[in-house]
Design brief:
The chain folds into 3 domains: about 35 residues; about 40 residues, no CATH class; about 50 residues, no CATH class. A two-stranded antiparallel sheet has the order 1-2. By secondary structure, the chain is mainly alpha-helical. It starts with a helix and ends in a 7-residue tail after the last helix. It has 8 helices and 2 strands, in the order αααααααββα. One of its GO terms (biological process) is DNA transposition. GO terms for molecular function: DNA binding. This is Transposase.
């Protein structure tokens, strides 16, 4: 109730010192009470420059751009003038950010041929699939899965896994 009375005194035209003496409190308490009673100031900002229609157009256009382009190149790409802040705001609202991929070492054609040859040499050698489980206290035995010749690639399928389960090769899950 005292705060309401302090605010009423100040609104009636009494100064802060007189109000503080009347209610036996500090000058700062009166000022803070009065300032806290004021409604929050609203920031009157104008509407955003790019409307909702432009926002979608910018966002969809920015998704199609090359990530190596700088923001300046992006702003020059649109009809009219689009500021850098507008582009950044559109990307931020769409939860995108301009990213740059990690630079990978250039591979010469000879190195690519060597890699392909290495992969083809080792491809037929992988004939058995081994599975096992490890947990905190213990580990399971290693199990060689049986190939399923009826599968599309004559490899491992759910049928071959079920056969291993039926034969008791894989440990039961507790």
């Amino acid at each position: 109730m005292q705060r309401v009375a302090i605010i009423a005194f100040v609104l009636a035209g009494r100064n802060y010192r007189e109000t503080a003496r009347t209610f036996d409190c500090s000058l700062g308490a009166v000022q803070k009470t009065y300032d806290d009673s004021k409604p929050a100031r609203l920031l009157l900002l104008g509407p955003e420059k790019a409307g909702q229609r432009n926002f979608h157009g910018l966002r969809n256009g920015l998704l199609l751009v090359n990530y190596r382009q700088s923001y300046r190149e992006l702003s020059g790409q649109w009809k009219g003038r689009v500021s850098l802040n507008t582009i950044k705001r559109v990307l931020k609202k769409a939860h995108y950010r301009k990213w740059r991929a990690m630079k990978r070492p250039a591979i010469t054609p000879d190195a690519a041929r060597q890699r392909l040859r290495f992969a083809r040499e080792w491809l037929p050698r992988v004939e058995e699939l081994i599975t096992g489980m490890v947990w905190k206290e213990d580990r399971s035995q290693l199990v060689f899965l049986i190939r399923d010749e009826n599968s599309s690639r004559a490899g491992y399928s759910s049928n071959s896994y079920i056969e291993c389960l039926e034969e008791g090769f894989l440990p039961p899950k507790d």
